[in-house]
Amino acid sequence: MPDSTPARQDIGTRSAEKDIPTLVRDLIASFPKDPGNTPHFEAWDHIRGFSLKQVQEALQIAGEPLGNNPENLVASMLLNRWGELEPEAALGSLAGRRHDNKEGLVMNLVGAWIQRDPDAAIRWAQAHPEEIEMARIHRMRAATILGQPPAAALAEARQLPPEVRQHVVGMLAQTMMESEQDRTRCFELLAGMAESDRLHAAETMVKTMTRRSAREALDLLETLPMSEEARQRAMTSTVTSYARQMPGEAIEWLASQSGIGGKELRGSTFNDWGSQNAAAADAWLEKQAEPASILAAALEAANLKMLSSNVETTSRTLQGERMRSYYLRWQALEPEPAARWLEKLPSDVSEFIIPELHDE
Question: pLDDT digits over 4-19, tens only?
Answer without folding.
Answer: 333 344 444 444 446 8
